[in-house]
Structure formats: C-alpha cells, structure tokens
Amino acid sequence: MQVFVTPGAQPVARRAGAAPGRPKSGTDAPGSQAPGRRIPAILALGIAGFSLVRSSRRTRTQSRAAEKDAEEKSMEPSTKSIETMMKFSNQYAKVTKTKYCTDKSVPAVVIVGLALHKETLGAPLCPCRHYEDKEQEVKNGYWNCPCVPMRERHECHCMLFLKDNSPFASECAQIDLEEIMKLKDG
C-alpha cells in the first residue's frame, strides 16, 4: 500500500491500481497525471522536509541581516550630518556644563556614529550599544542621544559628555569639524 498526496488534498491510502469502492478513473490510473502531481506523503508531510524549508528561510533572513549590517558598517555619514551632530554635541556640552574626553578620538567617533544613525534611522541612536532591533529602539527613544541616563543623571556611557570630576574629562567642551574628520578614521 502506498500513501499519496495530491497538492492541496489530504493524504490518501491506495492499493496499487485503484481506490477501494471506486472504479478506476482517468485520475486514478497510474501515469494519468502529469509527473510530479502526486508525491509520496512522507515527502509532503515529513518533518525533515519542513525543517529544510524553514532552515533555508531562516538562513536567507540571517544572510540579509548580515548584509544589512555590513552595508551599515561600510556606510559613511555625510559631512553635513556629522556637522549637525557636532553642533548638537557642542551645544549640549555647553548647556549641561560637561566636557569631552581627553582623547579627542572618543567624541569624534561617537559623533560620527550618531550622524550615521541620524541618517539611516532618523534619530541619533547611541552608537555605543548593541541592539537587536534598531528601528524599535529608535521608537522607544530611551537610547536616542541624549539618552535617558544622560538627561536624568548626567551619565553618558559613551564618554561623550563627561562631568568635571571624571578622570577622563578634558577642559574642552568644543570640537570642530576638521578635528572630527581627521580623527574619525583612526
């Protein structure tokens, strides 16, 4: 006895030849359907086959996510976006009476990261954290610069805005575009 499945139908057990209680019709006769029309049930309903399909979809999705991450990493924000985030950072440091890090490459890289996220996501999402879903994080707003910890407690984990008592704080609360462009590439 063989079990056959016609696409879109329930599995049917048949003896070689015809179904019991029914005369052999043109559709039941062996070879009367186009090749591939009937497939063994084990292939149609088998868990392994389902897993392979799901696995390949998952792999394709993961590949697309990896490609998107690679694209984002290779992207450079425009000079205009960097300048906008530089002006924001300089103004925010002035208003909050915070300073930049003594190593000027720290604020330069953070400002470039903020500019990239501003361009790609529409908001300056903190570039110093890992996110499972950046778009959702932007909507939540918690890590959009200035982040909630910075607004509430003046704690910037990026070391972009440092209090005077920080051992890493410089005397400088300004950075210019030339400096950022020179330092951003290392």
Number of strands: 3
Task: Give the number of domains.
Answer: 2
Main β-sheet, in a few words? 3 strands, antiparallel
CATH superfamily of the largest domain: Ferredoxin thioredoxin reductase catalytic beta subunit
Assigned CATH architecture of the largest domain = Alpha-Beta Complex
> What is the spatial order of strands in the main beta sheet?
2-1-3
**Which structural class is indicated by helix and strand composition?**
mainly alpha
Give the proportion of residues in helices: 40-55%
Question: What is the element string, with H for helices and E for strands?
Answer: EEEHHHHHHH
CATH class bucket of the largest domain: Alpha Beta
C-alpha Rg, in Å? 31 Å
Distance between the termini: 72 Å
Helical run tally: 7
**Beta-strand content:** under 5%
CATH topology of the largest domain: Ferredoxin Thioredoxin Reductase
Low-confidence stretches: 25-29, 42-55
Family: Belongs to the ferredoxin thioredoxin reductase beta subunit family.
Subunit structure: Heterodimer of subunit A (variable subunit) and subunit B (catalytic subunit). Heterodimeric FTR forms a complex with ferredoxin and thioredoxin.
Catalytic activity: [thioredoxin]-disulfide + 2 reduced [2Fe-2S]-[ferredoxin] + 2 H(+) = [thioredoxin]-dithiol + 2 oxidized [2Fe-2S]-[ferredoxin]
InterPro entries: FTR_bsu (IPR004209), FTR_bsu_sf (IPR036644)
